[in-house]
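Hey, I was hoping to borrow your eyes for a little while. I'm sending you its amino acid sequence along with the backbone structure tokens. Take your time with it, there's no hurry, and the full record follows here.
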Amino acid sequence: MSTRPARRETAVDRADGPRTDVTPTARGPDRRDASASSVAILRVADVFAATGGSPRGLAPGEAAARRDRYGANELPPVSRGHVRRLLAAQFTDLFAVVLLVSSAITFLAYWLGQPGDPATLQLALAILGVVLLNAGIGFAQEYSAERTAESLQAMVPHTCRVLRDAVRRELPARELVPGDLVVLEAGDAVPADCRLVEAQEAAVNNAALTGESDPVARVAEPVPPGPPLQARNCLFMGTDLVAGTGKAVVFATGAATEFGRIFRLAATAPRQRTPLQRQVSVMARRVAAVALATGALLFAVRIPSGQPFVDTFVFSLGVMVALVPEGLPATLSVSLAIGVRRMARRHALVKQLLAVEALGSTSVICTDKTGTLTQAEMTVVRLWADGVPHTVTGVGYAPVGEVAGAESVLELLRAGALCGNARLVPPAGRDTWRVLGDTTEGALLVAARKAGLDPEAEEARTPRVAEHPFDSVRKLMSTVHRDSDGGLFAYAKGAPLELLTRCDAVERGGTRTPLTDAERGRVAAAADDMAGQGLRVLAVARREIPGPRPPPEEAETRLTLLGLAGMYDPPRPEVRDAVDACRHARVRIVMVTGDHPLTAEAVARRVGIVRGPDPTVVTGPRLDALDDTALDALLAGSGELLLCRVSPEHKMRVVTALRRRGEVVAVTGDGANDAPALKHADIGVAMGASGTDVAREAAVMVLLDDSFASITTAVGLGRSVYRNIRKFLIYLFSHNIAELAPILAATFAGFPLVPITAVQILAIDLGSDVLPALALGAEPMEPDVMNSPPRPRQERLFSTAVMGRILFLGGIQALGVCAVFFWHVNASGIPYADFTRSDPVYREAITMVQAGIVVSQFFNALAVRTDRESVFRTGLSGNPWLLAAGCLGIGLMAAISYAPPLQAVFHTAPLAAADWAVLAAFGALLLAAEEVRKWALRRRSPGAEGGTP
């Protein structure tokens, strides 16, 4: 029997003619290269024949059958989360290795002892238990994080346009099958390996496969045989169409694609840690070094006092291990993951944990206008033709309404409808009318229908024979059509000023008349009048073309202006409140748009970005005239700034200048050309609903609802996550002081025994640290989180203020536990030298120390919930998980005190009710002291809220 792996069947296998395998198999790369070359050399008609496709696209039934045969068009899940490897990784962490070595040494000390000390065995088992518990928590977190990441990524729409029975449909990319005919436009991610059969000025970015970011032209004609990635008529999954349009036949999907092969090679690449995680890890290692030094100091001090060598060594080792913050990195990851999930619930999908950290310090938001500040439901409300304005009624995409004087603007609307690639989709089920494609083009389609035109019938009567897609340099697009007599003519639409420069005539009463300077002035005045009312204005023109198909430079010159179309995109109702929140948070908003300055200013005033009488309005040409010094001076001002008629290159330059000034910049974008700015910004924000695949891939955050308000919410949540991280860091590190202080005090006071054993310290770490710290990481957002300025970029996580608060709270805890220990010991009247480990007074004293730390940590957790605000004002029950975790820790402490089996393990004694009352009073004193500190802070700086720990 052959042992060769089974090959995945392809569409070409079923076609008539020579067998051509176009899907990668286990036979090796040579076979794959030959197959791609075979597809590339075929004529267009032969491509359809070989794949079983059709210029009309597949029939739905055939597509379903192929889906069953070939499977979904998706890459296989990464094997990174394999259970055994994931679990093994938990034991190779630095802290896990230290703990395992320490446990082994302690076991060895127990075995060498004659006889072995049961306490040493208990300590060894406790350390091993910490390793196992941390491994279990870490494994659960990482496994859950992988599943969460998969579910969150599924929220981002990955769709493509495909022809099925000659009807263009928008389908999930995973439903593509070999033989499908996909329709591609600039900004689309290529959803599968496919062969172009139509191409208009198409260019592709193959950086994902080749590393070369320069656009490469693509054609539909056959090419000579060669390597697959060099076939100029093939597109590959994972690449991006950056210019032009086209139609292509799918010949490989999913793991069978070229990208799938590379994906499998890269699937096991290690994940990079974020700067925040590295910073915390460095601090944790420093704390571990302090713990090692403390253990060495205790060993050096206790040996001369006559303590047994093995006992002293084991004790010092235990204290050192107990003071290592083993669970800190895991707690950090949980807090960040909680923030990511909260943002996703607020329609902001964060793709990198680093973005959560940076969001909290965002100081400038460069935002688009259309779709982000507005509802992205363009509606043509006014037309201008033959020197006369025409009103259009109706709102939204439903073709319900009227066009005043429709007979005079029919050619204007016909040109606007045909010069575009959008499609108006009628309601299905409970859906409403919607636009598939550009919303501006969709608005023109709706207006044409209101005037009585049928865009589909017009397109059939005058079929398109060429297209020159829109780009940010020309600021217009054009299409070439053939009329019933065989003649060619071009329609063009674009920005009024740009299109006017290409016109030499204007249509008056159906007649072409010269476009004089006076007439140009009237057209420009009409465009400005529309823009001043907050309308987005497009100019539409036409040209008769003699001879063959013209290049863009010929089709878009000597045009006849047909008129203007003014459309309105209403602001999102939630944006004004979001803008107000940014003002309170000292986050500057800069509108960056390609629209007319008057339109941009009108919208900016409606949403509250502009409130003063004279905002600074800068256009693209003026930006070109500014050198870097002048641009820095412009951006250094604190006034209201609008950047209009700008290109993606301008946006990139502005982002660079802002970051050069030390700003933390969030930038929105939806087009393929926005990708450089999105990547260069601290926070690249792409539109999930209307954005291109290229923009979504370049961004670190995707707005699932495209709303500016979601950015503001994400900034607030980012600040909240950063605060929560500081809260549990203060909580964790302050109690370490309380654990160290009584040990050091007893050592230097000459007390022969330890006030708290290593096993007790480990119990505190497991019983009263981990769960409350996790609960603090899930603390709800404080009301004043958006009332403080952004965090400076250079501010460290462990700032002077944070360390001061750790010392303040830890010092109070340390004084309290030292007081209860020495009070209990001295009240007995027994000389220090006479105390033994079995002495009831000593056991009660160490029980008091352990219980004192646990109880004080309960109050400490409540105290650190807020930075400045009184915890009584925010409510003690605002985080029920924290209360539950604290009560669980106290319950565990009670069990250690009263349960005989646990008494034997921890050498504890039962505490009286009065003892618990003393400890509760001590904890309440800590909370009261922290409330006094917050009150003094509020009184000293009443205007600065929220930012000081």
Q: What stands out?
A: The longest strand covers residues 193-205. DSSP finds 33 helices and 26 strands in the chain. The radius of gyration is 35 Å. The first helix runs from residue 29 to 40.
